[in-house]
Write a structure and sequence with these properties.
The protein has 1 helix and 25 strands. Helix content is about 5%, strand content about 45%. It has one helix spanning about 275-285; strands at about 25-30, 30-35, 40-45, 55-65, 75-80, 80-90, 95, 100-105, 110-115, 120-125, 130-140, 150-155, 160-165, 170-175, 180, 190-195, 200-205, 210-220, 220-225, 225-230, 230-235, 240-245, 250-260, 265-270, 270-275. The radius of gyration is 18 Å and the shape is globular. The strands form 5 sheets. Strands 1, 13, 14, 15, 16, 18, 21 and 23 form an 8-stranded antiparallel beta sheet that branches. Strand 7 (about 95) and strand 8 form a beta hairpin. With about 300 residues, it is mainly beta. Manganese (II) ion binds next to strand 5. Manganese (II) ion (MN) binds near residues 2, 84 and 121.
């Protein structure tokens, strides 16, 4: 799963900065869009929230059921300046990339691909896989220290888990409640899947230096005193050391967070950069078949970049 990000996601406007003196709680509706054949709920980027920590993109896709041709089929496309984080609740996806990686991902596992200066990948639903797909793909903006560096790919078949009193927390990225994922994190970051199979209430520990976001995949959740449903993003400003989470019948959710990202982020299509010149260069390099984005085998057609809107 992947972008593209369009102007609808991030219309021009001033971003809201963090408010360290108050406990900010914001509710944002996700935007419905379509990527690679399935409907996604895009929680980030949103005006006025473009980032939560370095998390800059959240696509909750499915649950979608059908023949594999109707499920995720995203042909080769490029990325720069970001890491893609893929987490499945149901189904299977085959990841291929320009580093030579060929990696199926299944529920409970993590794929993390870092683009740096440039990478290309495809996400296929191979024949014979389960007919329901449900999951999330997130992007993490890379800091200046690594964003022009080499690409990389990681697959984590096992991730640390914590029992928060009936809520199972799987630590995808960063540290949480005393355990730490081995997945790469270029900035102070956390990503945790939260699952309860029946009615449960727990306290989710939070780093007060982080801002956080919560997306509900299924079921109903009360976060603090507020009810949250699928299709919403809750933004929690810095300053909290924990928040209560409750479900009456079971629920699945994702917590993300990190230190507010210190760099301006320009996102267009599948690129995260600092200015439009970098975006245009990456677009042209992809269209011209530059070795910046090496070719690799895929059963799917390569995806052409649209023209950049500001150059028309
Ligand atoms: Mn992608």
């Amino acid at each position: 799963m992947s972008g593209p990000v369009t102007g609808n996601d991030v219309p021009a406007g001033d971003d809201i900065g963090p408010h360290p003196d108050t406990l900010v709680f914001e509710r944002h509706a996700s935007r419905l869009t379509e990527v690679g054949g399935i409907t996604v709920r895009r929680a980030l980027p949103k005006r006025p929230r473009r980032t939560i920590g370095a998390w800059c993109f959240v696509d909750h896709f499915g649950p979608a059921t059908g023949p594999v041709t109707d499920l995720m089929q995203v042909g080769p496309h490029p990325h720069i300046g970001l890491s893609t984080v893929t987490w499945l609740l149901e189904g299977e996806v085959l990841h291929r990339d320009s580093l030579g990686s060929v990696q199926p991902i299944r529920p409970g596992q993590l794929n993390l691909m870092t683009a740096g200066h440039g990478v290309a990948h495809a996400e296929e639903t191979p024949p014979g896989t389960p007919t329901t797909q449900h999951g999330v793909q997130l992007w993490v903006a890379q800091p200046d220290a690594t964003r022009n560096g080499p690409p990389a790919f990681e697959h984590h078949a096992e991730l640390p888990m914590v029992d928060l009193g009936g809520w199972q927390a799987t630590v995808l990225v960063g540290g949480f409640d005393g355990v730490r994922s081995r997945a790469r994190a270029d900035t102070p970051l956390v990503g945790v899947a939260l699952d309860a199979t029946d009615g449960r209430e727990a306290t989710v520990p939070l780093d007060p230096a982080f801002e956080h976001g919560l997306v509900v995949f299924g079921g109903q959740v009360a976060l603090g005193d507020e009810r949250v449903e699928p299709g919403e993003l809750i933004y929690l400003g810095p300053g909290r050391d924990g928040i209560s989470i409750r479900t009456d019948r079971g629920a699945r959710a994702l917590l993300i967070g990190g230190e507010p990202f210190p760099h301006p982020v320009v996102m267009w299509w599948n690129f995260v950069a600092r200015d439009r010149d970098e975006i245009e260069q990456a677009r042209d390099d992809w269209q011209e078949g530059s070795p910046r984005f090496p070719t690799f085998e895929s059963s799917l057609a390569r995806i052409d970049a649209p023209p950049v809107p500001w150059r028309q």
